[in-house]
Specification:
6 strands, alpha+beta, 6-stranded antiparallel β-sheet, single chain, elongated
Amino acid sequence: MKPTLTIVLLLFATLMLRAQEGLHVGEVFEGKVAKTTTETTQTGEPLRKYGLTKLRTWKTTVPDSLRNKIEALVNQDYEERDRKEEEVDREVRDGHIYYSIFRLGSRRTELSIGGDTNFKVWRHYLCYQCKVNTEQRSLYDITLVFLEGENLTLDKLKKNFKRK
């Protein structure tokens, strides 16, 4: 039983990392751009009440140069996002992104049993926020969040996660 559980856990961890594959900010989540101060990956029952299947957060405090690099990666993903259904909430202050949430794309599955076909659509969103650090005004607190949910919409996200 233990080897099976270990294999399942390894597969799960691999799938969580692959969720950000193909994204420019994927290298941020991988720790290649800046040191991570806080990171959380969550799936399962606690998220279902929010309509989510995956949640991955990444937080750090960086100087101006790294803020600019991370912001550029977010902008690249923003420009390449799924534009079929425009879902964007974005605020720019002094020429820099303060807050941005947008739909990246979707993954659709189809299940046919006895002639009945069921479809499920998982949508992916990226959230970014950058604030001036309250203790050191020359640094910036950055939060990145990758979200996936079945039939998830921007309105549902806004309702469940009030921004501060």
